[in-house]
């Protein structure tokens, strides 16, 4: 991509037209992203450990009634939830397509002799297996899939749950996705960052597609030494509560209940997210 391509870029990209996601699954990007998952300075990629501890306590006590369970974490990242759930006596499987995150999760499970198994696979194509008491997909990742892929993942989760098994989704609210699509453009010029370990300029711009109810964020990264620009983009589908209800019902889920957070604690409510718990 040259600078003139940036000048001539489309100003209303169709959702998912410029890429599926940020490159979670590229080895170098995933190694840089692993640092963000593990950082205790911010909640990007994964929440800080103090919050994860409270989420895990809620899953264990409120959702699983402290019964040892078979759990599948979709988009598990470096296994920060599965490792804690395993310590509480659950057996866990984590699926993620980030090589650095899966390597970290696997190494932690081996070092701590935990009952966790990790698969480096794309959720859209992975075989989820069978017989889970709980399947979780959190931190808004469901919204980042094209609607057909989100439905496919939910259908596969429905098939993989044991009778009476539960699905826990943490999703973005409609308003949060819409607000993302209406953010003003920004730029930063770090010496190194998530998108490149070399000095670069990163331009970000956001778009809201009111026809498809989807937000798209486009990133353009310009290498300071060569002037070469690369582009990637990530889109998010916005769903109302009625949309989530309809989608889950169409995928065979029942007893659909909405919560404010993965916790009872008011301090952990983040208005950009909501939690849905349902059963097969
Ligand atoms: C926001 S992070 C959340 C990680 C973890 N659930 C947590 O809260 O700590 C989203 C995760 O989903 C994974 N992911 C995104 N799309 C995926 C796909 N198509 N297949 C497998 N993993 C995917 C990413 O690699 C990343 O680890």
State the helix count: 8
Beginning-to-end CA distance, first to last residue = 47 Å
- List segments where confidence is low: pLDDT < 50 over at least 5 consecutive residues: none
Do you know the CATH architecture of the largest domain?
3-Layer(aba) Sandwich
CATH superfamily membership of the largest domain, which one?
Answer: Vaccinia Virus protein VP39
Secondary-structure content class = alpha/beta
CATH topology of the largest domain: Rossmann fold
Name the bound molecules.
S-adenosylmethionine
Radius of gyration over C-alpha positions, nearest whole angstrom: 19 Å
The count of strands amounts to 11
* pLDDT averaged residue by residue: 97
CATH level-1 class of the largest domain: Alpha Beta
* Strand residue content: 25-35%
Largest sheet: 7 strands, mixed
* Broad shape: globular
**Count of domains:** 2
**Percent helix:** 25-40%
- The ordered H/E elements are HHHEHEHEEHEHEEEEHEE
List keywords for this structure.
Rossmann fold, four-stranded antiparallel sheet, alpha/beta, 280 residues, seven-stranded mixed sheet
Describe the structure.
The chain has 280 residues and is of the alpha/beta class. The chain has two domains: 3-7 and 176-237; 27-174 and 242-279, Vaccinia Virus protein VP39 (Rossmann fold). The protein contains eight helices and eleven strands. It has helices spanning 3-7, 27-38, 49-63, 80-87, 99-111, 147-160, 174-181, 241-250; strands at residues 70-74, 91-96, 116-120, 132-137, 161-172, 186-188, 200-209, 214-223, 229-237, 254-259, 273-279. It has a seven-stranded mixed sheet, sandwiched between helices. It has a four-stranded antiparallel sheet with strand order 6-7-8-9. The radius of gyration is 19 Å and the shape is globular. The chain starts with a helix and ends with a strand. The model has no long low-confidence stretch (mean pLDDT 97).
């Amino acid at each position: 991509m040259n600078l003139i391509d940036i000048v001539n870029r489309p100003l209303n990209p169709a959702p998912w037209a410029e890429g599926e996601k940020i490159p979670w699954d590229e080895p170098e990007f995933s190694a840089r992203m692993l640092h963000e998952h593990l950082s205790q300075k911010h909640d990007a990629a994964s929440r800080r450990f103090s919050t994860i501890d409270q989420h895990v306590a809620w899953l264990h006590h409120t959702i699983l009634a402290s019964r040892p369970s078979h759990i599948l974490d979709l988009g598990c990242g470096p296994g920060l939830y599965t490792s804690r759930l395993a310590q509480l006596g659950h057996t866990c499987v984590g699926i993620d397509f980030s090589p650095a995150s899966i390597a970290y999760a696997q190494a932690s499970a081996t070092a701590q002799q935990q009952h966790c198994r990790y698969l480096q696979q794309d959720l859209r194509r992975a075989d989820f297996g069978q017989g889970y008491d709980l399947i979780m997909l959190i931190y808004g990742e469901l919204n980042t899939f094209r609607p057909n892929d989100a439905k496919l993942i939910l259908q596969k989760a429905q098939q993989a749950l044991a009778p009476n098994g539960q699905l826990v989704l943490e999703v973005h609210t409609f308003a949060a996705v819409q607000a993302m699509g209406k953010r003003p453009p920004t730029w930063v010029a770090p010496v190194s960052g998530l998108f490149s370990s070399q000095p670069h300029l990163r331009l970000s711009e956001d778009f809201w597609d009111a026809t498809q109810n989807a937000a798209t964020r486009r990133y353009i990264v310009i290498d300071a030494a060569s002037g070469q620009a690369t582009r990637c983009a990530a889109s998010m589908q916005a769903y109302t509560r009625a949309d989530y209800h309809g989608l889950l019902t169409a995928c065979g889920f029942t007893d659909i209940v909405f919560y404010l957070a993965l916790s009872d604690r008011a301090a952990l409510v983040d208005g950009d997210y909501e939690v849905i718990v349902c059963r097969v």
